[in-house]
Amino acid sequence: MTVKRFLIPALAPVLAPVLAIALMALSGVQTPAQAQSGPLRIEITEGVIEPLPFAVPDFVDEGGAGEYARNIARVIASDLSGTGLFREIPREAHIARVSSFDNSIGYEDWKAINAQAVITGAVTVSGDRIVVKFRLFDVFSGQQLGEGLQFAGTTQTWRRMAHKVADAAYSRITGEGGYFDTRVVFVSESGPKNQRLKRLAVMDYDGANVQYLTDSSSIVLAPRFSPTGDRILYTSYATGFPRITLMDVGSLRTQTLAEQQGTMTFAPRFSPDGGRVVFSLERGGNSDLYMLTLGSGNLSQLTNAPSIETAPSFSPDGSQIVFESDRSGTQQLYIMPASGGEARRISGGQGRYSTPVWSPRGDMIAFTKQHQGRFHIGVMRTDGSEERLLTASFLDEGPTWAPNGRVIMFTRETSGAGGSAALYSVDISGRNLRQIPTDGAASDPAWSPLLP
């Protein structure tokens, strides 16, 4: 049997222990993207979607698995149900019981409870090593969707394996890329509202496995992952003034970038190739956009206007930058070539627009909008058309895209002296608004790419 091996994660050791995963088809090597298509499909539109009913029986214990067999199945079910596109049929409603991974499922038993998809699996544990394998079945067509996949690694990374199974099932049914095997970097907050202590933290996309990257001795803001997930950019007040800082996630080593006396730097973001950083630099009360080439240290100025230019974000192909500016009198969104030059305004509605972020798909821009005393997270086409507001509250801000361009995470803060910040996610159709569980207040989320 041919085995494809690769390291997971590139973010070790801070984000997760080093894991060697074997990804192999149970009948020939095959990845989820290559899996055979079948009649079971969710067509994702902007209208109301009827969730697809599915079942995930506890995985079969093929030796030493214990609670891992049940826990992995529960994480898979939670991942899929959390999208709003799937509805789990609870275990107590199951007629059939899966006692062997190699046996065919009884399709009629699953039809009887209206399951349209069934995920079966098995787990083997030996020492600190774990092997997880699964199959996905289309009940009504009576066939397996794609080849089975197998993952092998350490028991510490069992949740990652569950996320990978869910990603594969999600991709096969929807035709879109998954986003469960990802991390989110954010600002963890504590203390009273008028004197918050802030430190950088990372977690799984669903709030599990939180790890802290900095202490709370200085304010940190706006962390951003590199395209490969091994570095983080953020704004630090360690010197008393805002400075953009680059952190190596594996070693936690940091360095300050683009230091120039008498200036403040903030709102950094990586280019799609990870070789450049675009950010705001304030000098003499005026903020413009600059580009820093990390390899050479070359610094170039992109804008030169008597206004505030900030919150830049690259297009996925690296050719353009969207940013916010008050050059027209209020905060609005503009797009210009990545090398600088003439900018065109794309926001045209009433209110103020800020924190634009280009979708990984390249077709949309997410933003924060303030209008009539309310804050919104919205999306628009890259030419400013088809603006759609997804949320509304006292304070919603700072969107970040899941790597498949389907889901947006953001900060929501409640009003009053006792108000606090929390992380929420929402589908780009405005459906499925959910709070992400965190231990205490949290803000400024930034989604990682899919882990390797």
Automatic annotation (TrEMBL):
Keywords: Cell cycle, Cell division, Periplasm, Signal
InterPro entries on file: 6-blade_b-propeller_TolB-like, Tol-Pal_TolB, TolB_N, WD40
Signal peptide: 1-35
Domain TolB N-terminal intervals: 40-145
Localization per record: Periplasm
Keyword Signal in record: yes
An annotated GO cellular component: periplasmic space
Quaternary data: The Tol-Pal system is composed of five core proteins: the inner membrane proteins TolA, TolQ and TolR, the periplasmic protein TolB and the outer membrane protein Pal. They form a network linking the inner and outer membranes and the peptidoglycan layer.
Name used for this protein in its record: Tol-Pal system protein TolB
